[in-house]
Request: fold
Amino acid sequence: MDIATIIGLILGALVVVGSILLGGTVGMFVNVPSIIVVIIGSFAALMIAFPLSSVLKLPGVMKNAFFAKPLDLMALIEELVRYAEIARRDGILSLENHTEDMSDEFIVQGVRMAVDGTDPELIEQIMDIDLDNLLERHKTGKATLDAMGRYAPAFGMIGTLIGLVAMLGNMEDPSGIGAGMAVALLTTLYGAIMANVVFLPLADKLALRSNEEALAKTIIIKGVMSIQAGDNPRVVESKLKTFLPAARRRAAAAEEGAAELKQAA
Reply:
């Protein structure tokens, strides 16, 4: 579970609720028709803009922002270097016996094509296509959340305009104008909260997850291609570490140095 996402949502909710309590009572900010306009209206617009299959996947897309397997790129690189050592020592065909130990199905796919003697250009092309398709699926999921982030404030404004029209159409009791205006503005408030506390931040988190996964898949592609080419394991390691941030590379080098000193002692 992503603790940062949970903490962010809790803090956002606390800010909103705290502001409400400081400025009045909770009951003043609850209006069921306004909530219905914003939520149902936003989903109606989403169904117009996207196919039903994408809309039905929205709960799962949102769940991915909360639950995601942490990606340890250094561990991934070490795994690929280990397979490069095996291929260098025992031949690339020996990797067929290690597919069950591989941490990612993407590695298995690439290694099996390499073991089968598939043309290197074709291996890279197939894996690149798989990566592109993955990113396209991620793009669609993020787009649904971005759309909800746009539609919620829009329907909030629609609800406000409906409330204003209803209020202005019934001006016999001037004392009710203030209360009617407050109710009308609630839909705009609901739309803004849904967009800026929930949908848009989750969309940004999914974009971050997608970029991280794309980097991991790119490392796998380059690693498999180096293994297939028979590169020295040290060369494979050097190639793949170029994908890491400079600070992470320095930390990895320091860890390796400490490990070597420990072994020497």
